[in-house]
Amino acid sequence: ASGKNVVTTRGDFHHPPMLDAAARELIEQACVEGGTSIYSTGSSPGFVTEALVIPLLSLSRRLDCLTIDEFGDVGSRNSPQLLFDIMGFGGPMRDFEPQRAQNLKGDFATSLAQIAAACGVAIDSWEASGEFSPASETVQIAAGVIEQGTIGAQRITIAGIVDGRPRFRFRANWYATNRIANTDWELRES
After folding, report:
1. 89 CB contacts (<8 Å, ≥6 apart)?
2. Would you put residue 90 in left (φ > 0), alpha (ψ -120 to 50) or beta?
3. Preceding amide of 45 cis, omega within 30
């Protein structure tokens, strides 16, 4: 409303129809008053999950399920507090906390929703899940040691579901080591 345009990396602005209706109305009213706009962007979510996808989809004859895999090798990062305390690498194997996956859902579901809308696909629901994989051997990384059998990798999946099947999916594959028990994750060499 102050007359300033806003550029942000906040994921909740990627697809305005997914915003809370009351909040969206207030934001749109402020933009009308100020003659301004909000532009939400980023690399991922953003460019990789939006701008890059449209040209690639134009090369396809049909779309069964679009899957975007992001690979993040964090083994060279010397941030023990982030990797061990916050992200849980090197910790005991356990169930993935649903709230952690839900946190990413807000950003990536809104981004993928833009693509679904551009393709004319109505998403029934958005789901988020996560899983860990244990390290298959003890590995020294920049931040410390990942013991065999402890959390060596994690995958968070955000999926747009249509008729019970994923149609648009983003998977964040973050790993401190690629020597893990879940060999079907196809992690890149370090």
Report:
1. 74, 83, 146, 150, 151, 152, 154, 176
2. left
3. yes
Residues sharing a CB contact under 8 Å with residue 11, sequence separation 6 or more, in sequence order: 40, 42, 45, 106, 107, 108, 110, 111
State the Cα–Cα distance between residues 63 and 53, nearest whole angstrom. 12
Token pair in block for residue 98: 């649903």
What is the pLDDT at residue 190? 58
Distance CA 123, CA 116 (A): 7
The whole-model pTM stands at 0.81
Q: Give mean pLDDT, residues 15-30.
A: 88
User: Three-state SS for 158?
Assistant: strand
What percent of the chain lies above the pLDDT cut of 70? 98
